[in-house]
Amino acid sequence: MGNGVETRMKKTTLVSVVALGLALLPVRSAFSAAFIPTPNRESKLLADFENQTTATSDPNAAGENRATINTDAEFVAEGTKSLKLDVSGVSDWHDNWFVVDLPQPVDIEGYQVLAMDVYVPAESLDATGYYQFDPHPSTLNRSDATMTDETWYGPRNMAAGWNHLVWDLKNGTDTKLTKLAFAGNTDSSKPYSGPIYVDNIRVYKGSFAGLKPDEKLIFGFDNLSDKDLFTGADGVKIEVNADKQFIHDGNGSLKIDLTGQGGGWTSDVARADDWGTTVDASTATAVHLDFFVPESSQPTGDWKELGFVVIGDGGEISAQTNGYLTDQWNTLELTLTPDQAKMLTNVKGMYLLRNQDPNTPWNGPIYIDNLRVVVPATTGQ
After folding, report:
1. pLDDT per position in the chain (381 positions), as tens?
2. Whole-angstrom distance, CA of residue 193 vs CA of residue 294
3. Which region holds residue 66: left if phi is over 0, alpha if psi is between -120 and 50, else beta?
4. Which domain holds residue 21?
5. Contact indicator for 341, 228 with CB cutoff of 8 Å
6. Is 220 found in the same domain as 201?
7. Torsion of Cα atoms, 240 then 330 then 344 then 347, to 10°
8. Single residue among 163, 184, 205 that ends a domain in this structure
9. 196 and 239 in one domain?
10. Is 192 found in the same domain as 295?
11. How far apart are CA 152 and CA 10, in angstroms?
12. Is-contact 198 158, C-beta < 8 A?
């Protein structure tokens, strides 16, 4: 400053902080080939690494670049190239596992979901560990284009194979994207033992919340009697909510009051084992669930996550617990392999998962709405 050069100021918005030593569910199976569960939805490509792209990877802040361009088709989601990250020996929490500098700002007005595909070779990880990415992109401030907002988002977990990761973007940040940066986290005693590959970073038009043309509704939580299908842990109060600010579609949502609920990971949140016959989801590519967490309800600790399990006639299929945004609708996505989808000839129940700093209990209710499945072949019918 004072040298005649315009200085762009940065304003940081903290959405979710990831803690060290996170306790998680066993990692779900990923896909053997790259898989997009919502192929009919409008999106905008941000980085596919087909052309010249400036990407760096220096997770240990050692002044090195572990990022190169891969041309091996086995590790490419779309096209002929992907980003190879040599993360062998890297573990624990670091701010910048990799960064993609965009040559010019990309207008993402109206695009409210960030997604990317990550391939993790089985030999690059320990199956008993956890491996996460957390984006913290920079966008132009909506009120002052000389400033950027860096917004932090919660973790998404990865398994061996292809992983399709999605994040809801914070309301109001769909301006112009200037930089893509991804933090990462692993168990400090279980580092990566080889490279991983990133491809197909894009944003989707609109929010994923609410019933879409390529989806079938399983449960809308609109009837007062719906609460009787669910049971919860001692102290958890479950009812059907009629307050419109906490309903995305229809006449109601399920209100789950978690006040005082503490501890770490648990599946004892709200459970319905068998609500009867709903829809045949045997050709579905994903299950979606909307949820809303008021800022005043969440725990005060550094990390808190929510997830869910869907119950079909063929068994249970579990999504990971994810970080979330407060005071806006979020969508949890459980991608389905064809074999998993066949387990859902009837979706007959579900239950919620939560994971948090064990020392900080919840302070209020959360709300869920619109349990549904994605069936792309039905679009337009």
Report:
1. 333 333 333 333 334 333 333 333 333 456 767 889 999 999 999 999 998 778 999 999 999 999 999 999 999 999 999 999 999 999 999 999 999 999 899 999 999 999 999 999 999 999 999 999 999 999 999 999 899 999 999 999 999 999 999 999 999 999 999 999 999 999 999 999 999 999 999 999 999 999 999 999 999 999 999 999 999 999 999 999 999 999 999 999 999 999 999 999 999 999 999 999 999 999 999 999 999 999 999 999 988 999 999 999 999 999 889 999 999 999 999 999 999 999 999 999 999 999 999 999 999 999 999 999 999 974 444
2. 40
3. alpha
4. 9-205
5. no
6. no
7. 0
8. 205
9. no
10. no
11. 14
12. no
Q: Does residue 221 share a domain with residue 187? A: no
d(CA 203, CA 45): 7
Cα 124–189–354 angle (5° rounding)? 90
Residues 197 and 139 in one domain: yes
What are the two backbone dihedrals, phi and then psi, of residue 122, each rounded to the nearest 5 degrees? -60, -35
Residues 106 and 252 in one domain: no
Q: Is residue 2 part of a domain?
A: no
CA distance 103 to 52: 10
Residue that is written with structure tokens 């890297």 in the block = 90
Structural domain count of the chain: 2
Q: Which residue has the tokens 């009919």?
A: 40
Considering the domain architecture, whether residues 198 and 236 belong to the same structural domain is answered as no
Which one-letter amino acid corresponds to residue 269?
A: V
Do 177 and 45 share a structural domain? Answer: yes
Chosen domain end from 163, 186, 205: 205
Check if the beta carbon of residue 238 is closer than 8 Å to that of residue 351. Answer: no
